[in-house]
Amino acid sequence: MAGRFARTPQVARKEIAESVARAVFGLMSASMILPLVLIVGYLFFRAWPVLSWEFLLDVPRHGMTDGGIWPAFVGTLYLVGISLLVSTPIGVLAAIYLNEYAKDNWFNRLVNLAVINLAGVPSIVHALFGLGAFVYAARFGYSILSASLTLAIMTLPVIIASTREALASVPMAFREACWNVGATRWQTVRAVVLPNSISGILTGVILQVSRAAGETAPVMFTGAVFFKAVERGNLFPYKLTDQCMALSMHLYTLATQVPNVKEALPYATAVVLLGSVLLVNATAIVVRIWLRNRKKW
Amino acid sequence: MTRLRPTTPTRLSVLALVSAFAVSACGGGGAKEEKVAKPSKTVIQNKGSDTMVNVAQVWAEEYRKAAPDVEVEVSGGGSGVGIAALLKGAIDVANASRDIKPSEAEQASKNTGKSPVGFNVGADALAVYVHKDNPMSEINLEQLTELYAEGGKVTRWSELGVTIPGVKDDTIVRVSRQSSSGTYEFFREHALGNRDFRLGSRDLNGSKEVVELVGTTPTAIGYSGMGYATAAVKMLRVAPKAGAPAVAPTIAAVHDKSYPLARSLHVYTLGEPHGAVKAYIDWILSPAGQKVVEDAGYVPVAVAGNATGALATGAPAPGAPPVPAASPPKP
Amino acid sequence: MDSTARPVRPRAAVLAEKALEAVIRLSGVSAIVFVAAIFFFVLREAAPVLVSKGFSLWQFLFSTDWYPTSATNVRYGTFALSVGTLSVTALAMLIAVPFGLGAAIYLSEFCSPRVRETLKVVIELLSAIPSVVWGFVGLTVMSKLIVSSTGAPVGVNVLNGGIILALMSVPVIVSIGEDALKAVPDSFREAGVALGATRWQLVYRVLLPAAKNGLLAAVLLGVGRAVGETMAVLMATGHAVHIPGSLLDSVRTLTANIAAELGEAPSGSDHYRVLFLTGTLLFLITLVVNLTADFVVRGIRRK
Prior knowledge:
heterotrimer, A: 297 residues, mainly alpha, MetI-like fold, two-stranded antiparallel ribbon, 11 helices, 72% helix, globular, B: 331 residues, D-Maltodextrin-Binding Protein, domain 2, 2 domains, ten-stranded mixed beta sheet, two-stranded parallel ribbon, 10 helices, disordered C terminus
């Protein structure tokens, strides 16, 4: 910036301020990479003695002080799967409504506000809601069903928000072209808008997988238990009305409730949980980039 | 004219919606059946005392080998929660580290027409833990009251005549349990004479956490089940009052009733147990189940001199160690 | 039909589409339904204790004596818990806001596109770390660090909780802050450059004032995240129900209190209901914070 002008003291001051600012802000950004790397690295380091496929497939042994985490892992798979099965259709349809059908009146602003607030509800309040509504009022009792439905309500707003973004990114011209040939709103959505926003929708859903897997409070009070005996490696050990173990709750249990647990065990559980979550998120990011590159506009 | 065929996203979303409803319908129907009828034969729901949850978990684990077609679901929540769930008929077996109250037994008869039946499955000593470097070796209940109770005046180790090596600040770090814990209630009743705790102690959520915190903090003191001891802490001998002989928490002291802070561990069922639940309780009272109790650091029933262990509700179990401050069930 | 008649869609298709539109509209309003339902069901479990005798809302909100299971003198005072929430959140914001805004500015104005993509991925991954893992880190790693560097007797305290919460809220502040900065029209930047401003001067004198609403919203949403966090503070703040005397004192937050005691409160008891009442309080606090943030953001769109 100062190239063509004489380097007066004022210009020098500006340049120094600029470099300092750049350095400071750059350092601040870098300071976020550091915790991520350090945490993941340290957890891995402490978990190393125990990490193996055996650890994943085996059941907890000796009062949960040893052994593996299979019931918790498969329980989390159940909880995440069922909750997304419920929240994805509702979320996608709600986003279609908000983006394609809703006019800009007070009612729809209220709906918007509701989505924002639903996203900000603390996880413990979700747990209380699940307890009051699903466990007691709907009489599902403590079960995978109650826990999954609670998780579904929790992941709903973000699926709505990310689907809306994906739908909004489809150029208006596409829709106008459909209207010009006489398509109804639904036909437009189905034939043109949805197929072109699939990548964004998919990304949003995948990201919620990791959120649902990582939450503890909503499942702790509605359907996850301290312990349940399950066969090693069994992929279908639970019925909907059973309670289950969950990876997130298992980490909490191992860290705070089980005496004399083998040192590496809670670290290994944290690594499996964190690793799965990061893997899923990385997949979502890759999918998003790949699909974005395939877009033809 | 040509009809547009449904596209993949449509098909997927319709399929998803339908499956979601189908899944919730089956699940809902199944749940209602199970809650209205007696819980199914192959799943036993066990809930209650956090002190007993680790033992209960090992019982469930070992019982799986003895009876592979029975699944036991174990969760904590505290004696109060377990009993409350039992009274609603929501679970099969409740674990409690305290006696059931007459009011609770009454509520059970009102709600379900059955009375709770209790079984003594072991005993526990509530140990007072300090860091292993702490030179103190005994304490009496009056000192505990001065430390922990509302209105108590002791805040530093020097006031108790103790110097902890290597620390600059000798403020006592009081470690306690959260207010809804049975352990907390027991300590309040038998060590503090029912006075409320002073706020500001670290009220941890689990028996193991208490011992862990004491083990890493030289100026800490805490109370927890004797089965949770580790190498980093030591258990103090406890005297009922200043001047009386201090007793260490051992199996012998628990069953000859000389340790002031001992309590019996029970399981409760609604009415006499039948079928799989009866088999499970019989197994718990058998040598196999009692070995689990002993390995966990608690006092097994057989040693306490009570072979069958069946209790009438509301009355202290025969052979269960009583405690000095007269312990009728709380009103 | 003669060939000049307009082609008509089969009736079944028209009806099916109307039905589908009804389902879509229903899904759309579901968000309102769920928010209202959450408030309703939580309040429903809490309500009986509000009208029971011996319960005073004033005491609930402003007394520091939390004795829900006392044998002699039951008291439900959540003030110490509110102060706990406040202290941990304040410390977290003190750390997260400068770092978050700094990173947002860097991402938006200073760095090259490739670095930006990498950093954004890192921040997304940071925000994906589950709260219980953060709590575990606070309980094990951070606690030892704090004890060894400050000599505090116990490593789980306000400082620990504050640092962990800061790490959790930073991604929110960065992403929304970056959006806010990006939303400032390029014409502002071009005008500044035309006058000879350096990038830093641009940021400081033009962009920050222009984006201040969005940045405020970012901070508010970060606050909302911190206030509502449960598992991480449950494991990292030390569980002492009192007003903290220093950063190295243990506290308990409103959220952690519910999580710690709900499991052990028999359903239907007064203690249980008071915990639900605390949940209602939390819901209202985060509602206010989120509404304010949205209101502030809408202020920008109006311009």
